[in-house]
Amino acid sequence: RKEVEQDPGPFNVPEGATVAFNCTYSNSASQSFFWYRQDCRKEPKLLMSVYSSGNEDGRFTAQLNRASQYISLLIRDSKLSDSATYLCVVNRPDDYKLSFGAGTTVTVRA
Amino acid sequence: ETGVTQTPRHLVMGMTNKKSLKCEQHLGHNAMYWYKQSAKKPLELMFVYNFKEQTENNSVPSRFSPECPNSSHLFLHLHTLQPEDSALYLCASSQDGSGGLGEQFFGPGTRLTVL
What we know:
- The complex is a heterodimer.
- Chain A is mostly beta strands.
- Chain A is built from no helices and 11 strands.
- In chain A, strands 2, 4, 5, 9, 10 and 11 form a 6-stranded mixed β-sheet that branches.
- The termini of chain B are far apart.
- In chain B, a hairpin with a 6-residue loop joins strand 4 and strand 5 (44-50).
- In chain B, the strands form 2 sheets. In chain B, strands 2, 4, 5, 6, 9, 10 and 11 form a 7-stranded mixed β-sheet that branches.
- Chain A binds chain B through residues 2, 4, 8, 31-32, 34, 41-46, 49, 87, 91-93, 95-103, and chain B through 40-43, 45, 48, 56, 90, 97-101, 103-109, 111.
């Protein structure tokens, strides 16, 4: 089983729509969770950390479900500039390194 | 310059060539990483340096050789590569080697093509 699994998409949504997607992780002992954003042919950049209680950052909401071992990202009022690949990132508790998912591609159309 | 820089941004090399990738971070971090990103695949961690000491070699073939002369600079020396080594090579840094608990900052990457 992969350490981090994501639906690759693509999710094609119109401007203003809400889009949500999940990521599952295999190690129940993982403690740190992140969403990174990667634009086409660019480097990944941290979008937001994911806290146990869930957290919001503007139009972005992240949730953590430890029982089912998944995290989610919801984007409200999608903008064209939200088009990117969103990487789910989870720490490896054995060595404290990060495991990356292959990414979920979101395309927002006018 | 700020953040994490990488040179060159693009590299085309033959299988018999020797080349080096360079990474420099201007963030005062103590840990640096090399990742490989192939199309449609997750980032693969290759090497980790924490306070200039290599703490991880993730079963990377010996044709990839890292060097970390100080906490701000990281090199990846390449020799006798294979076409399947063509990928985006990303350098990253973090405050310390407990990369799993903190944000990593990535450079723009070197897009490598091996002919």
